[in-house]
Write a structure and sequence with these properties.
- It is built from five helices and 14 strands.
- The chain is α+β, with helices and mostly antiparallel strands.
- The strands form three sheets. Strands 3-4-2-1-14-13 form a six-stranded mixed sheet, with helices on one face.
- β8 and β9 form a beta hairpin.
- The longest helix is centred in the middle third of the chain and has 16 residues.
- One of its GO terms (molecular function) is endonuclease activity.
- It comes from Kribbella sandramycini.
- This is Endonuclease/exonuclease/phosphatase.
C-alpha cells in the first residue's frame, strides 16, 4: 500500500488546490520576508495584485516567481498568475478594464493607473474552475463599473469561478453588495482585516467563490507571522479549493 502524495490527484486534476491571493506592493518591500511567507503557504496557484511593472516587467515577474519556487504564467495590468510545477493553467485570459483616468476626493485630484484582470482555468478533481484576480481602482463609482467588466470576464470561462483581489473598499460598500447579489460566497467573512499589515483594521481584499465550488480560508502558517508586516502592506488570503 502506497502513501498518498501531499496534493492527492486523480486522473483529471488535484482534488485540493491551494490558492494564495496577495497584494505584494510591487515587490518593493522586504523580498526575503515575502518569499518566506509565500513558500510557507505552499500555494499551487498564486494570484498576485500589484505585481512589478514598468521596465523589465516579465523579467521581474519571473524573478519574483522563482524566489517563491513558482513560475510566472500569465499577467494583465498589475495582476499576475504564478503556478507550482504540478499545476496546469489552461485558457489564460487577460483583459483591460475601463477606469476613469482622474479621481477626485474632497478638493484633491489624482490620476489612476490603467486597470485590468487576469484569469485561467484549472482542474479540481473532475471539476473545471476559473481563477480570476483583479485590482479595483480608487474612484468610488468607477469601481462598480470595473467590477461589472471583471464579472463578464469571469463568466466568459463558462465554469464556476473564484474571484480574488484588492477591492479597495470595505464590505459595507456597493462592490461587495454586488458580489453578494451575483450569488458568490464571501470566503473571507470571518478571516479578519487585511489592511494594513502593520495595523490591520479594515478588510479591503476579497475572495469570492461560485456556489458550485467548495472552498475555505485557511490560516497563514504561524512561523511566518512576524514576516507579514515586512513582506507587504497587505495581508494575504490563503484559500483551499476542494473537489
Amino acid at each position: 500500500m502506497t502513501t498518498p502524495p501531499t496534493h492527492p490527484r486523480d486522473d483529471v486534476g488535484a482534488r485540493v488546490v491551494r490558492v494564495l491571493s496577495y497584494n505584494v506592493h510591487r515587490w518593493g518591500d522586504d523580498r526575503e520576508a515575502l518569499a518566506r511567507v509565500v513558500r510557507a503557504c505552499g500555494p499551487d496557484v498564486m494570484l498576485v495584485q500589484e505585481a512589478p511593472t514598468w521596465w523589465g516587467t516579465r523579467r521581474k515577474r519571473r524573478a519574483m516567481a522563482a524566489s517563491f519556487g513558482l513560475s510566472y504564467v500569465a499577467g494583465g495590468a498589475r495582476n499576475a498568475i504564478l503556478v507550482a510545477e504540478r499545476i496546469e493553467l489552461a485558457q489564460s485570459l487577460h483583459w483591460r478594464i475601463w477606469r476613469p483616468f482622474v479621481r477626485r476626493r474632497l478638493r484633491l485630484i489624482a490620476t489612476q493607473l490603467p486597470g485590468g484582470a487576469v484569469g485561467g482555468r484549472v482542474q479540481i478533481g473532475t471539476t473545471a474552475a476559473a481563477l480570476v484576480v483583479c485590482h479595483l481602482g480608487l474612484h468610488i463609482l468607477g469601481r462598480q463599473r470595473e467590477l461589472e467588466q471583471v464579472l463578464r470576464g469571469c463568466r466568459s470561462f463558462g465554469t464556476p469561478f473564484l474571484l480574488v483581489g484588492d477591492l479597495n473598499e470595505t464590505p459595507d460598500g456597493p462592490v461587495w453588495q454586488r458580489l453578494a447579489a451575483e450569488g458568490l460566497t464571501d470566503l473571507g467573512a470571518d478571516a479578519g482585516p487585511t489592511f494594513s499589515s502593520t495595523d490591520p483594521h479594515k478588510r479591503i481584499d476579497g475572495a469570492h467563490l461560485s456556489p458550485e465550488l467548495t472552498g475555505r480560508i485557511v490560516p497563514i502558517p504561524a512561523e511566518v507571522r512576524d514576516d507579514l508586516p515586512k513582506a507587504s502592506d497587505h495581508l494575504p488570503l490563503l484559500i483551499e479549493l476542494t473537489d
